[in-house]
Amino acid sequence: MNRVYRDWDEVVEKRLTDNPEEARLYLLEAMQEYFNDNNLSTFLVALRHVVNSQGGIGLIAERSGLDRRHLYRVLSDNGNPHFSTIITVLRALNIKVDRLGELRV
């Protein structure tokens, strides 16, 4: 019997596609991890998963008004986005930031 293996990113993104609340909680957890250990790449991976699950870089770039290449660059593992860029991406995902550390859809 041949097994079909899926990429971890694909599994995560599929789950997030089906449940916007799961995506919000996933980002909230990633943000808490960042506050705990200052590991920005972990948060950017989570944000990239949510972006991909909600239509991809191209669609989010269009919604946000950000350049697609710029968005690819800032969401990469080595990205170093400005806070305003993160907020712009969250708004394009229809995720509101009420208070520091609290996200809602």
The rounded Rg comes to 14 Å
Biggest sheet, strands in spatial order? Answer: 1-2
Mean pLDDT, to the nearest integer, reads 87
Helix content: 55-70%
Q: What count of helical segments does DSSP give? A: 6
- Shape annotation: globular
- The secondary-structure class comes to mainly alpha
Query: How many discrete domains?
Result: 1
Contiguous uncertain segments of 5+ residues: none
What would your notes on this structure say?
- This protein is mainly α and 105 residues long.
- The chain has one domain (8-104).
- It is 66% helix and 7% strand.
- The chain is built from 6 helices and 2 strands.
- It is globular, with a radius of gyration of 14 Å.
List the helices and strands and how they pair.
Layout: H1 8-18, H2 20-37, H3 40-53, H4 56-64, H5 68-74, H6 83-92, E1 96-99, E2 102-104
Antiparallel strand pairs: 1-2
Helix pairs in contact: 1-2, 1-3, 2-3, 4-6
Describe the structure using short key phrases.
6 helices, two-stranded antiparallel sheet, mainly alpha, 105 residues
Provide a quick synopsis of the model.
The chain is mainly α and 105 residues long. The chain contains six helices and two strands.
